[in-house]
Write a structure and sequence with these properties.
The chain is of the alpha/beta class and 364 residues long. The chain is built from 15 helices and 14 strands. The strands form three sheets. Strands 5, 6, 7, 8, 9, 11 and 13 form a seven-stranded mixed beta sheet that branches. Strands 1-3-2-4-12 form a five-stranded mixed beta sheet. Helix 8 packs across helix 9 and helix 9 packs across helix 15. It is globular.
């Protein structure tokens, strides 16, 4: 059912258009639900809220959810009157929404997921042979961000890399596919991590640093051509074998895929998948902006209820406050996933204003 819901969403998610996902519509699914919570969420959480087990767990606590999806940064342009909460994929767009709607106090952050790069095995092996990555396990490794950004700045092609000629699919300019940074959270966070590395390990904070890093960011984005508006669509393209062999996604999407497809198969199935953790990355802290008391109540439940936390892990998210929950659940998947993010540097995210300007300049 999760897979069917995802396919429907992939068709509906175009630009900043909002797609509806109604959870708990049938009376037998709602159980004891007495409160209907209407919310807008990032697309990567759609399958979580459409999961019948999540619907059942929320109903047991008195909630029915009506969720609609949007790019996290595109939420700022929506009229959220009549909604109970907004649930973008990181703190920066959440802070913008909180300021817009006068929401005060600490914003709940029930779970998070780091950005990773998914690669087909051939691409990962060529990167490793050329010092752009290191492989730590059969299907897991580390992307060396400094080396990759240097290659991108010099417009390196696959044909210039040792060993690439063995693979006919590895041609053209070497680049990471990402989503539109002006509307999608993962695309914006990619720029945050890249700008941090390009700025000498410091968060970009002023006009001079924006001007210094913007040309590289423009190169990272312009080489891609048309970009997807949602990470969900970009990941589905990769899994289907279409498009670029290196794609920026959330770790949660990979973990959810492994839960659905535990056995290696052909191209696009886990057997062909290598997960590269950038040595400098950004965590996507999924942050709730409660707009009503019902919204706040459900937001707090997502972070405190043990059943919902376990279901979040099943969908690949890392619950805040306890690393053992994710580590225990993903123990059979260590060939692909890091149980703990040791050796991965977390880059601070620039302010919303700076990140918006970096995205604007990157898009040209």
């Amino acid at each position: 059912m999760r897979r069917i819901a995802g396919i429907v969403l992939a068709v509906l998610l175009i630009g900043g258009v909002v797609a509806a996902v109604v959870a708990g519509r049938d009376s037998e699914e709602t159980g004891t639900a007495t409160k209907t919570v209407r919310m807008v969420i990032g697309s990567e959480k759609a399958e979580f809220f459409a999961d019948p087990d999540v619907v059942k767990a929320l109903a047991a606590k008195g909630y029915t959810v009506r969720a609609e999806t949007s790019g996290s940064w595109a939420m700022e342009g929506l009229d959220l009157k009549g909604y109970d909460l907004a649930f973008p994929s990181s703190q920066a767009p959440a802070a913008e929404l909180a300021a817009k709607y006068g929401v005060r106090g600490t914003l709940p952050r029930p779970f998070y997921s780091p950005l990773v790069v998914v690669a087909h095995r051939a691409a990962a092996e060529v990167l490793a042979r050329n010092g752009l990555a290191t492989l730590e396990a059969a299907n897991r490794g580390v992307l060396r961000m400094g080396a990759y950004l240097d290659a991108a700045e010099r417009d390196r092609t696959w044909q210039q890399l040792k060993g690439a000629t063995r693979y006919g699919e590895l041609t053209g300019t070497l680049y990471l596919s990402s989503t539109d940074p002006e509307t999608s959270n993962s695309g914006a966070l990619y720029l945050a991590a890249a700008s941090y590395v390009a700025n000498g390990g410091k968060v970009v904070a002023g006009a001079a640093e924006i001007a210094r890093t913007a040309p590289l960011l423009r190169t990272l984005v312009s080489v891609q051509g048309a970009q997807q508006s949602s990470t969900d669509a970009a990941f589905r393209d990769f899994v289907s074998g279409a498009g670029n062999p290196l794609v920026i996604v959330y770790e949660s999407q990979v973990a959810a895929l492994l839960d659905e497809r535990p056995d290696p198969g052909g191209p696009g199935d886990p057997g062909d998948l290598v997960v590269l953790y950038p040595d400098t990355t950004v965590n996507s802290d999924h942050t709730v902006v409660p707009l009503t008391e019902n919204g706040r109540g459900m937001a707090e439940l997502l972070g405190s209820d043990r059943t919902l936390r376990a279901l979040a892990v099943r969908h690949g998210f890392r619950p805040q406050g306890d690393v053992t929950e994710f580590a225990a659940a993903t123990a059979p998947r260590t060939a692909y996933l890091k149980q703990r993010l040791t050796g991965v540097r977390q880059a601070p995210v620039p302010t919303s204003a700076v990140l918006h300007e970096l995205a604007r300049r990157a898009r040209g």
